[in-house]
Write a structure and sequence with these properties.
single chain, alpha+beta, 24% helix, 29% strand, globular, binds fe (ii) ion
């Protein structure tokens, strides 16, 4: 991209397109010491308080800088590279990490190992990239004392507290308020579809595992929904259009949120899946539409529960799994309490934690 000048007007030219840059847009970006805090890169002035009739008295290109005198008496040198970066207007850190679709044939995924200074290491950067590619990652050797999972969450970003607390203990107990707290098998599901917003990422830390069952199961919702889109476009369409109600009732809280089972971004790419067939309430629609909806949901459920897509593995003691609750479904096989104890701790973080850490590490290691 090139910056060009013509009669005190500034243009950008990317080879195929030449357009004038609004003078106000440039005025907002003045970066002298009195206008911009160098540490935070935050403005020291409020551009909404400026006169909208900003114009340019004089403009000049001096090597890598655009020098401008504005009609309100302010002069500034703006780095041309910075303007070019803004024109690309793309997330250059998270979005370029392409999701890798996987199914039951997935093998040899790298496990990471916890060590000193882990959260500031290049290894942590690699871990987060792997997480965005596959939607999950397993880290070995995580200390198990003092609810370390919360420290782990807060060292990537911030733990997402819910009404279950900062973290939750997963073990079978009497009078459970969720099937997770039994020794029964758990079919693939996403967590907490009734929250607004739904927690983005679940961390699950294995503290004690004396049983032979209780394997962790994962399904890539991205692979399944892409396959559904190709095989049954009508099913995909209705599941990505109809909002259903998800509800959780406890003695002192009622949580409720409405969403499609397959939620799409504006560009029709996958944003989020929700699947928890014990908690969803389909609205009353026309009979024909409901007929299609129920067939579509059944098909999606069969795919989510199929051996074709599921991986199973044992979380060993000290293993911590981090999984994308907007992309993957998780579950577990049954286990026998007579064999011994099984104890895991879980908590949530949101995407701001992983994105913030990844951007920081990319900057730190100049990647
Ligand atoms: Fe769960």
């Amino acid at each position: 991209m090139k910056i060009e000048l013509n009669q005190n007007k500034v243009y950008f030219n990317n080879g195929s397109l030449k357009k004038e840059i609004h003078p106000f847009w440039l005025r907002e970006r003045v970066d002298g010491d009195e206008f911009l805090d160098k540490g935070t890169q935050q403005r020291l002035f409020d551009p909404t308080s400026l006169d909208n009739k900003i114009s340019i008295n004089k403009a000049n290109i001096n090597e890598n800088f655009l020098e401008i005198d504005f009609n309100d008496g302010v002069s500034s040198k703006i780095e041309i590279k910075k303007i070019a970066q803004e024109f690309s207007n793309e997330d250059t850190v998270i979005k370029p990490i392409a999701k890798i679709k996987w199914d039951s044939t997935l093998k040899d995924i790298k496990n990471f190992r916890y060590q000193d200074n882990f959260f500031e290491s290049k290894e942590m950067y690699d871990l987060l990239v792997s997480f965005y590619k596959y939607g999950f990652v397993v880290i070995k050797d995580i200390p198990t004392e003092d609810n370390f999972i919360v420290k782990f969450a807060n060292s990537i970003g911030s733990v997402r507290r819910t009404n279950f607390g900062e973290y939750f203990d997963v073990k079978s107990k009497p009078n459970p308020n969720d099937l997770a707290y039994t020794s029964l098998a758990l079919a693939p599901h996403t967590d907490n579809p009734y929250r607004n917003p739904v927690p983005c990422i679940q961390l699950l830390h294995c503290i004690v595992s004396e049983v032979s069952g209780g394997l962790s199961t994962l399904v890539d919702g991205y692979t399944v929904t892409e396959d559904l889109k190709n095989q049954n476009p009508d099913f995909y369409k209705i599941l990505s259009e109809v909002k259903v109600k998800f509800k959780f009732i406890d003695k002192d809280v009622i949580l409720e949120d409405w969403s499609e089972l397959i939620k799409l971004n504006d560009d029709k790419s996958l944003k989020q899946i929700r699947f928890s067939p014990r908690l969803d309430f389909v609205p009353i629609l026309e009979k024909e539409k409901l007929d299609l909806y129920y067939r579509a949901r059944k098909k999606l459920s069969e795919m989510y529960n199929s051996d074709k897509y599921r991986i199973e593995f044992k979380l060993e003691e000290k293993d911590l799994m981090m999984m994308d609750n907007y992309r993957l479904l998780h579950g577990r096989t049954a286990y026998k309490t007579s064999e011994g104890s099984r104890f895991l701790q879980g908590c949530y973080i949101d995407y701001d934690s992983t994105e913030g850490k990844l951007r920081h590490l990319k900057r730190k290691y100049n990647l």
